[in-house]
Design brief:
- The protein is an alpha+beta fold and 543 residues long.
- The protein is 44% helix and 19% strand.
- It has a seven-stranded antiparallel sheet.
- The longest helix is centred in the N-terminal third of the chain and has 31 residues.
């Protein structure tokens, strides 16, 4: 057996070279401090190797390694190879002298003590080569001992010992892999046996309780738990879809039906769904939202539109199941409100309209639809309209929800001046100067009922007037306006060829014009003006 502190003497004397030798390397060792660079004494080195062999045969491994370290100081290339072989024999012989105790203990079925003995051998190893020989001798017996625990059904004990620090030191890679595969197969077999009956009855709660108990006892691990949970979730998804299909076929569902569905979804252990709203607003609509937040006393900053799951949380409820749950809630709501579902018809929003969830018309809004959004009305209930909405930028799924029925019109509202709740930020024509009969352009800065404040585009001055005096300004190619054309100081008819909107808020739009005569024929060359400089005959305005 190894002798206390003497066991580590070789390392203290410079066994780095021997460590390389025991691993099969061929690196020269350090020169003796008393010898000049390049001086060797092969005869003396061989004498020391012979003495080392004698110490090894006498099982004095510490002395044998110390003598080899001394021989390395005098060795040339040929003797270094002899030193490497001698060091390897030293490692092998010592390992063979110590490993039998581990092997016998493992053969007796005493896996934990065998692992403890192997761990001590590896921890106190004088060289990496010694460690390699020890593992080669003890790995398979220990793996077979642990396999015996698996075959005896002692899965928890086998898992604990197989994943211990001692096992990682003692088992070679191939044996560790074989043990893991054996243990994994046994655990899966136990799980199938334990869960086959409740899963067959679609008793999801019972199945999860059983796998929880197996995990707690150590009979199953995280991987097995995830596998069973995946099976349960697949079953729950099928049951949810079947329940919703029944409600849809009957066109009715009760509050108890929804309660049962929620209880079923809860068994899937999903985290709350991630809420993501598609931002398809125009820049104008974003500005209107900011002004509305400021008017309400807020900071004006955008609210968060995504609710991220906590780190390490279960994945959120799948979108298809969230939609199925929403469908069931809709049929409950439809029964409560006595909704009337009929032939679909096109509708347009009149102003900005809150869209409420399909299954919860009195809950929080899903989002606010812009003025003139094209919708399809599917039915009505209690002053609400069930609509289907698919904005131009939406990609896949159409969205269905409830809106105030009074906020819809059966004709396209995009060419009409919107109501007050969508008027801020809109460009308008109006009598923005006292005593002038022509209209000019401005942007609505505030609107309350019929009272409106408009900021003139030409000079930024704010003018207050009533909504009835304004008209929607849709200035584009072909729009007829008044501008300074042929006669100095006189506004004459012109037609817009193009409007160049500014890249930033501090620049004015530029309009390209063609002046025309009374018959509408072009007169003179094209000209450019700032958009705020053009005017409009009120009789040309479409309100």
């Amino acid at each position: 057996m190894m002798r206390g502190a003497a066991f580590f003497l070789g390392a203290a004397l410079g066994l780095g070279a021997l460590a390389a030798g025991c691993d099969g390397g061929d690196k020269p060792g350090p020169k003796h401090a008393g010898l000049e660079q390049g001086k060797t004494d092969p005869r003396k080195a061989r004498e020391l190797v012979v003495k080392s062999d004698e110490a090894r045969e006498a099982h004095d491994y510490d002395t044998a390694r110390e003598l080899l370290v001394q021989a390395e100081r005098y060795a040339d290339t040929a003797v270094r190879e002899e030193i490497r072989v001698a060091a390897e024999l030293c490692d092998e012989q010592q390992a063979k002298s110590l490993a039998p105790e581990v092997v016998e203990t493992a053969a007796d079925g005493k896996c934990a003590p065998a692992l403890k003995l192997a761990g001590k051998l590896v921890e106190g190893a004088p060289t990496p080569g010694f460690t390699a020989f020890v593992k080669k001798l003890v790995s398979k017996p220990i793996e077979q001992c642990l396999a015996g625990l698996v075959e005896a059904g002692k899965l928890s004990e086998a898992r604990e010992l197989g994943s211990s620090a001692e096992a990682k030191k003692a088992l070679e890679a191939a044996d560790a892999k074989a043990l893991a595969e054996l243990l994994g197969g046994a655990v899966k077999a136990e799980l199938r046996k334990a869960l086959e009956e409740p899963l067959g009855r679609r008793a999801w709660a019972e199945a999860l309780d059983k796998v929880d108990a197996l995990v707690k006892s150590g009979q199953a691990g995280a991987a097995e738990y995830r596998s069973v949970l995946a099976q349960v979730r697949d079953g729950i998804a099928a049951d949810v879809k079947a329940a919703v299909a029944t409600a849809t076929q009957k066109k009715a569902a009760s509050a108890d039906d929804l309660k049962s569905l929620d209880a079923l979804l809860a068994l899937g252990r999903w985290s709350p769904p991630v809420v993501v709203f598609e931002d398809d607003r125009t820049e104008l609509e974003k500005m209107q939202d900011k002004l509305a937040r400021l008017a309400a006393g807020g900071s004006g900053e955008e609210p968060k539109t995504t609710q991220a799951p906590a780190p390490g949380a279960e994945p959120p409820l799948p979108a298809e199941l969230a939609a199925a749950r929403d469908e069931m809630a809709f049929w409950v709501t439809c029964g409560t409100l006595r909704c009337k579902l009929g032939a679909s018809k096109p509708m347009w929003t009149w102003g900005r309209v809150d869209l409420m969830a399909k299954g919860d018309p009195k809950g929080a809004k899903v989002k606010t639809l812009p003025h003139a959004a094209a919708l399809t009305e599917l039915g009505e209930a209690g002053g609400l309209a069930l609509v289907e909405w698919q904005p131009a930028l939406a990609s896949a799924a159409r969205r269905t929800g409830w809106v105030d029925a009074k906020a819809l019109k059966p004709t396209d509202t995009s060419a009409l001046l919107p109501p007050a709740n969508a008027l801020v930020g809109v460009r308008v024509w109006g009598p923005l100067r006292d005593g002038e009969k022509v209209y000019e352009l401005g942007t609505v800065s505030a609107a309350t009922g019929e009272d409106v404040a408009v900021r003139r585009m030409s000079d930024g001055q704010e003018v207050k007037l009533t909504r009835a005096k304004l008209g929607l300004a849709r200035v584009g190619k072909g729009t007829k306006v008044l501008a300074l054309c042929q006669t100095p100081g006189k506004l004459e008819a012109a037609v817009v060829d193009d409007v160049s909107e500014p890249p930033g808020p501090m620049s004015d739009p530029i309009v390209t014009l063609t002046c025309v005569d009374a018959q509408g024929n072009p007169v003179g060359n094209k000209r450019q003006e700032q958009l705020g400089a053009v005017r409009l005959d009120p009789s040309w305005l479409r309100k």
